[in-house]
Amino acid sequence: MLGGSPVRPDGPPAWPRADSDVQAALAELAASSAWGLYHGEQVPGLEAELAAFHGVPHAIACASGTVAVEAALRALQVGPGDEVLMAAYDYEPNFLSIHALGAFPVLVDVAPGNWNLDPAALEDAHSPRTKAILCSHLHGGIVPMREVMAFAARRNLKVVEDAAQAARAIVQGQPAGTWGDIGTLSFGGSKLLTAGRGGALLIRDRANFQRAKLVLNRGIQPWAPLSELQAAVLRPQLRKLPECTRRRAENAARLKAAIAAVAPGLVPLENVVGDSEPAYYKLGFRYDAAAFGLPRETFVRAMRGEGIAFDAGFTGLHVGRSPSRLRVGSDLKNATAAHDGCVTLHHSVLLGSADEIQQVADAAAKIHAFRKELA
Questions:
Q1: How much helix, strand and coil, in percent to the nearest 5, is found in the chain?
Q2: How would residue 220 be classed by pLDDT, with cut points 50, 70 and 90?
Q3: In whole angstroms, what is the distance from residue 334 CA to residue 88 CA?
Q4: Using an 8 Å Cβ cutoff, are 238 and 50 in contact?
Q5: Contacts of 158 (CB under 8 A, 6+ apart)
Q6: 12 Cβ partners below 8 Å, 6+ apart?
């Protein structure tokens, strides 16, 4: 922004990365013409592998993570007039999916340490109309699902666990997406497992599985399917996901230590839940503009100018919306702080070398050193 050479002249690493196994899967499918089948081997093969990978009896592939969330809520019989508790800091399409059912979102606060849904805020938000809880693991943070499920059991509520950002995370000893009545995954173009688009439901209970299949099918034909091509590219990625998760976690720890030494006001969000291992689709930070010396928007723009894939976090769901579209179930001071101060790093660099990780810290240090000129 001030001239000169950026830390990463070529910009962030490409995602998805070139993968010979993905290329081989595509070539094999093309050679056999199987890529055009309505009902081929790839989608059921992926569903079986997803179920085995997560230790659940059933998995259903679909067209997107957003479709998966809506289908999960429908399968759990959430409908018009029902309330769904969710974090006030979350992915906007989850909020809109609740409205798509004729149900009503009730916003609860997030935990101060990691800006993920706070189970302690659920009690005040509950009402006789509450039917379900929708919770997402975000930005390398973990929702303490054992506590969420205990609350849900006391109140006879259903739970959808959105693991779109947390494929292969471990939550209190279990894979992310396997605590709730139904878990959901996303295979969008930027996700840890990517097919450009796509999603899946993870289900233990057979009745929920049967209802989800009915939701996602019009007779024998799925209305929001995953294609054979998409399933084919996901299967080799799934096999490599544990090793990629381990590498991202090691590099995230390395980066957190490096950032702490050079960038005051840039504090990593923490996993504050025991017996858990995050998956870093985004590595989240609490950004203190006063401590760093720049507005968040300027900091993000400057990092991107240096070739580092930083972004501002989500817009709080309670910000700029008509009160008629939601109910506030608890004080939202932490969700407001997340709205104002979250920044995230895209995961693609976390598979890189130690030198590439250091470049992120170097860029932050460089921007801090020139904060007065940038301001």
A1: 45, 20, 40
A2: confident
A3: 9
A4: yes
A5: 76, 77, 78, 131, 132, 133, 152, 180, 181
A6: 307, 308, 309, 346, 348, 349
Residues near 302 by beta carbon (within 8 Å), at least 6 away in sequence: 1, 294, 367, 374
Contact 192, 281 (CB under 8 A): yes
pLDDT tens string 77-115: 999 999 999 999 999 999 999 999 999 999 999 999 899
CATH of the domain at 108: 3.40.640.10
Cβ atoms within 10 Å of 174's Cβ, excluding its own: 18
Looking at the domain assignment, is residue 319 inside a domain?
yes
* Same-domain pairing of 182 and 302: no
Under DSSP, is residue 258 helix (H, G, I), strand (E, B) or coil? helix
Task: Report helix, strand or coil for 14.
Answer: coil
Please report the DSSP string for 309-364 in residue order.
Answer: -EEE-PPPTTSSS-GGG-EE-S--HHHHHHHHHEEEEEGGGGGS-HHHHHHHHHHH
Count of structural domains, the chain: 2
Q: What is the mean pLDDT of the segment spanning 316-327? A: 96
Query: What single-letter amino acid sits at 262?
Result: V
207 class by beta-carbon count within 10 Å (0-12 exposed, 13-18 middle, 19+ buried): exposed
Measured in degrees and rounded to the nearest 5, phi and psi for residue 269 equal -65, 145
CA–CA separation, 29 and 36 (whole Å): 9
Confidence of residue 274 (pLDDT cuts 50, 70, 90): confident
Domain that holds residue 63: 20-237
* 214, 237, 260 - which closes a domain: 237
Both structure tokens of 103? 């149900």
Confidence (pTM) = 0.97
Q: Are residues 188 and 290 in the same domain?
A: no
The answer to whether 151 touches 130, Cβ cutoff 8 Å, is no
Q: Which residue has the tokens 């059912």?
A: 101
Contact 233, 26 (CB under 8 A): yes
Query: Which pair of structure tokens corresponds to residue 223?
Result: 């209305």
Angle, in degrees to the nearest 10, between helices 228-262 and 354-369: 50
